[in-house]
Specification:
about 190 residues, alpha/beta, TIM Barrel, 8-stranded parallel sheet, 8 helices, Aldolase_TIM
Length: about 190
């Protein structure tokens, strides 16, 4: 049974601290990574590299694995109808691709890279924000990063939970000293305590 979001005032306590994001580069190890995550973590299914039918099939496999560990399952590049049809717990995406307030019991986890995007996401009612890139990452090679100071300045302004993303792993989470973080490579290839 999926954990359901119960509203913005409860979001700080209810959103998981640890988030695994799927990608073509970590696909082969996702079942094992989902098993290693602490029970009740979060999983964002992206898999942009797949066509619709294989994407749905891969989602079903990974969602079933995630549910056995009581992870929240969030769907990217979708709309609310798809979120409902696929029985996901919510939607992941930028304010530019967001359409409408989350339905009752669903989450919208926004992506933001700066103050302007973060404020837009908050104005549209984001349940939480993936703020990135904190550190250099394979997803944004050569791109500017927020760094520890830049991330903390922005994150502390948010009334909703902020999830650190971009080059994150356990060592970087300790360096950042931020409890809520997510990763693609940093969780798929290493053992999580």
């Amino acid at each position: 049974m999926a954990r359901r979001y119960s509203g913005p005032m409860h979001a700080r306590q209810s959103l998981p601290l640890l988030w695994l994001l799927s990608d073509a580069r970590n696909d082969a190890g996702l079942e094992q990574a989902l098993e290693r995550l602490p029970q009740g973590s979060g999983f964002v299914f992206r898999h942009y590299h797949l066509d619709p039918a294989p994407r749905r099939a891969r989602y079903e496999t990974l969602c079933a694995k995630a549910r056995t560990r009581r992870h929240l399952v969030i769907l990217s590049r979708a709309d609310w109808e798809t979120v409902a049809a696929w029985d996901a717990d919510g939607l992941y995406g930028s304010p530019e691709h967001f359409a409408g307030a989350p339905p009752e019991g669903k989450l919208w986890l926004a992506t933001a890279h700066d103050s302007e995007e973060m404020q837009r996401a908050l104005a549209l009612g984001a349940s939480g924000i993936f703020l990135s890139p904190v550190f250099a990452s394979a997803s944004h090679p050569g791109g500017e990063t927020l760094g520890v100071f830049g991330f903390r300045v922005l994150a502390q302004q948010s009334p909703v939970p902020v999830i650190a993303l971009g080059g994150m792993d356990e060592a970087r989470a300790r360096e950042l000293d931020w409890p809520r973080w997510g990763a693609i490579d940093g969780l798929a290839s290493t053992k999580v305590a």
